[in-house]
Amino acid sequence: xxxxxxxxxxxxxxxxxxxxxxxxxxxxxxxxxxxxxxxxxxxxxxxxxxxxxxxxxxxxxxxxxxxxxxxxxxxxxxxxxxxxxxxxxxxxxxxxxxxxxxxxxxxxxxxxxxxxxxxxxxxxxxxxxxxxxxxxxxxxxxxxxxxxxxxxxxxxxxxxxxxxxxxxxxxxxxxxxxxxxxxxxxxxxxxxxxxxxxxxxxxx
Length: 204
Known about the structure:
By secondary structure, this protein is mainly α. Helix content is 69%, strand content 0%. Helix 5 packs across helix 7. The longest helix is centred in the middle third of the chain and has 30 residues.
């Protein structure tokens, strides 16, 4: 007879993933053992194995849930913008704000996404890489809709990656609770896209 899951099973898994992400970010995924993860979770290794069969399973679930969350944010922004009648530029600005709001509370998960996908087995790696490609494709699609006169078939990829270059590495310098708030930085990114650095009337 299969063991019945405790009512807080998913909550326990969520907590394990949160603490594991922080531990991977602190000591690196290769250097972290199941014993380290158990200690970080305040539990025994045997109890940790009750929730996850391996460190690799923890990493995949962590990245699987996080990339699904990013895809959900895109769908939520697109749906909400359509219901509210926002313009394409307003929709892309909302997307920037939504992603930076997520990044503010997902530092360690984002580090794992950027650094640790290569440690997954091939089939799992492809799942995560496909989701990352979908995220990039969604940004490229929205960016070209927002700035059709500026974003062309020829430069769509490079411009899209410029945007990710502005927001994807905030975990290295933009700290929650710091002098610059994430929402203020989002406004700066949107303003950069809208106006660049040149002051009105400046000549090249």
